[in-house]
């Protein structure tokens, strides 16, 4: 699985035959994949998801919110409630705009589950946006 776009089951995916590392699986909209295919289209290979959804995949999210007391507690409590494993959490505060940008890595087993988690995060008070981050 490509680290740049972190595909999860349900994403449209394609493969790229690497030199010495086998096939790298990317989301179809991954900029790194699109660039590589432009450079060497013969390395493109069709791939598909198997039926197994018990495996978990890391996904990077970016959450933007207006700062408020207990925002981080609410984020982590929600993830815990949803039984989502939080791998990393890093927040930065913009004093001039009174906003917080939170980068987090969670483990997900499907695109539907990811959409559900992102919707729930979006519903937290003061949250402006929640998006997948590309590396």
Walk me through the structure.
It is a single chain. With 135 residues, the protein is α+β, with helices and mostly antiparallel strands. Helices cover 24% and strands 35% of the residues. It has 3 helices and 7 strands. The protein has helices at residues 31-39, 71-81, 111-122, and strands spanning 13-17, 23-27, 44-45, 57-66, 86-94, 99-108, 127-132. The strands form 2 sheets. It has a 4-stranded antiparallel sheet, covered by helices on one side. A 3-stranded antiparallel sheet has the order 2-1-3, with helices on one face. The longest helix is centred in the C-terminal third of the chain and has 12 residues, at 111-122. The model has no long low-confidence stretch (mean pLDDT 91).
Concise account of the structure shown:
The protein is 24% helix and 35% strand. The chain is an alpha+beta fold and 135 residues long.
């Amino acid at each position: 699985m490509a680290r740049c776009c972190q595909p999860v089951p349900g994403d449209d995916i394609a493969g790229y035959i690497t030199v010495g590392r086998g096939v790298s699986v990317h989301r179809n909209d991954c900029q790194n994949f699109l660039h590589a295919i432009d450079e060497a289209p013969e390395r493109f290979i069709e791939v598909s998801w198997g039926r197994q959804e018990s495996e978990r995949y890391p996904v990077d999210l970016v959450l933007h919110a207006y700062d408020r007391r207990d925002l981080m507690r609410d984020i982590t409590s929600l993830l815990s409630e949803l039984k989502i494993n939080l791998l990393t959490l890093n927040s930065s505060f913009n004093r001039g705009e009174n906003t917080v940008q939170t980068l987090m890595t969670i483990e997900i087993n499907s695109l539907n589950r990811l959409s559900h988690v992102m919707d729930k995060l979006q519903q937290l008070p003061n949250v402006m946006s929640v998006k997948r981050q590309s590396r």
